[in-house]
């Protein structure tokens, strides 16, 4: 065992007496440990929330979505479909028409987002796990059906059992000035509800999925589409396929993967995670002031020991290393125990879900968490660096004290 480590270990783990300095050092170590554990737990919750959002949106969003950069809709030509289908890895194209309309059911009404989808959406079974009533289908024989969000169902009192109550959709038309007939101001179509989905509150309260032919007729989108959603054979090839699509169909389209479709949300989560990391690191930095004071007092208390070591031939460098090692011991024990405690808490939550979200309609009953090795690495580096910096000044002071003894 090297001499600085041997002496600093004896100072820290001395069994002969536990004085005030030892107590401060232990308190410093505990604060570092608790701060490190809190950092790991909070970062793991952010990771879990990010994964939860990806799993929720993954049922709704396509792996790749194509929309116009400027404008609302575009002509879907055979040439455009051929260029997309010719790219290796593209399994299918779901045509999309999305717009806002008025939905009326009995005497209740509300504004909803109609999303007309082609049959490829049903074949992909993308939202099959989100259907709570009825089935994921746009047709019952030749009869078209709608799939409504659960929030819309509750607000309008929609029943799948009543085959005589239709959902009525109204969409405003572009009419010439001077038109007197009120029926010319809007298009009107009816549809039976065939299923109810529950995915996420925003979607549940706003979206109605309908056959694309119904949406095309109601919204007057003849031959036009607002988006194309692609199913991909190998998810790992998505960036490569995006680049190929950009080269094939030109710059007038936005070609987004699943994360890019909610880019602002994920960016906000990452910023919040960064600020939480910085905030908790500052808490540990404040706690490290205790390390500074405990080492400063230890230097004063061990002045006779420093004199003895100097008399035995110790150099100022050796004295400095002894007190730096003392601070490093506190940092390593505090950070190590904190990382272990944080890991155990996150593991228990991930496997047993002891902490509940407390929301009856929550997608998950307990808080989601996820262990990411990089969080442990960066947390350990930052905590050890902070506590090490707090140990530098007392160790320099001890080395200077040995120099003053040499002069005397």
In short:
By secondary structure, the protein is an alpha+beta fold. The protein has 12 helices and 13 strands.
Structure characterization notes:
By secondary structure, the protein is of the alpha+beta class. It has 2 domains: 3-58 and 265-407, no CATH class; 64-257, no CATH class. It has 12 helices and 13 strands. It has helices at 3-12, 20-60, 78-85, 120-124, 150-156, 201-204, 212-219, 238-249, 263-301, 303-311, 316-352, 373-407, and strands at residues 64-68, 74-75, 90-105, 108-117, 131-134, 139-140, 143-149, 167-172, 186-197, 207-211, 224-225, 227-232, 253-257. The strands form 2 sheets. A 6-stranded mixed β-barrel has the order 3-4-10-7-9-8. The chain has a two-stranded antiparallel ribbon with strand order 2-11. A hairpin with a 2-residue loop joins strand 6 and strand 7 (143-149). The longest helix is centred in the first third of the chain and has 41 residues, at 20-60. The chain is elongated, with a radius of gyration of 33 Å. Belongs to the ABC-4 integral membrane protein family. LolC/E subfamily. It is a multi-pass membrane protein. InterPro entries: ABC3_permease_C, Lipoprotein-release_system. Residues 279-402 form the ABC3 transporter permease C-terminal domain. The chain crosses the membrane at residues 20-46, 274-300, 330-350, 376-396.
């Amino acid at each position: 065992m090297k001499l600085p480590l041997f002496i600093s270990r004896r100072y820290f783990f001395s069994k002969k007496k536990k004085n005030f300095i030892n107590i401060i050092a232990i308190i410093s170590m505990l604060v570092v440990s608790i701060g490190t554990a809190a950092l790991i737990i909070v970062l793991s919750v952010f990771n879990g929330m990010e994964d939860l959002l990806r799993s929720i949106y993954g049922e709704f969003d396509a792996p790749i979505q194509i929309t116009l950069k400027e404008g609302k809709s575009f002509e879907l030509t055979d040439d455009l479909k051929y260029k997309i289908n010719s790219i290796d890895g593209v399994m299918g194209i779901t045509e999309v028409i999305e717009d806002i309309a008025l939905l009326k059911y009995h005497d209740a009404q509300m504004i909803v987002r109609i999303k007309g989808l082609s049959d490829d959406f049903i074949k992909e079974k993308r939202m099959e796990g989100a259907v709570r009533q009825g089935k994921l289908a746009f047709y019952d024989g030749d009869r078209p059906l709608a799939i409504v969000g659960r929030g819309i169902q509750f607000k309008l009192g929609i029943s799948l059992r009543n085959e005589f109550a239709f959902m009525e959709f109204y969409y405003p038309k572009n009419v010439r000035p001077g038109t007197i007939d009120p029926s010319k101001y809007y298009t009107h179509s009816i549809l039976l509800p065939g299923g109810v989905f529950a995915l996420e509150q925003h979607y549940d309260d706003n979206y109605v999925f309908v056959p694309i032919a119904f949406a095309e007729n109601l919204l007057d989108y003849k031959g036009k589409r607002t988006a194309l959603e692609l199913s991909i054979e190998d998810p790992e090839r998505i960036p490569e396929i995006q680049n190929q699509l950009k080269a094939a169909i030109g710059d007038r389209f936005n070609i987004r993967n699943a994360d890019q479709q909610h880019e602002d949300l994920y960016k906000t989560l990452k910023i919040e995670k960064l600020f939480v990391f910085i905030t908790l690191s500052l808490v540990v930095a404040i706690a490290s002031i205790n390390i500074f004071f405990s080492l400063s007092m230890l230097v004063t208390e061990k002045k006779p020991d420093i004199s003895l070591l100097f008399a035995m031939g110790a150099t100022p460098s050796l004295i400095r290393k002894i007190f730096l090692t003392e601070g490093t011991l506190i940092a390593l024990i505090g950070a190590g125990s904190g990382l272990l405690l944080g890991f155990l808490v996150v593991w228990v939550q991930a496997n047993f879900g002891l902490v509940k979200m407390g929301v009856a309609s929550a997608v998950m009953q307990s808080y989601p968490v996820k262990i990411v090795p990089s969080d442990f690495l960066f947390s350990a580096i930052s905590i050890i660096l902070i506590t090490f910096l707090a140990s530098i000044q007392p160790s320099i002071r001890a080395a200077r004290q040995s120099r003053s003894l040499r002069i005397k």
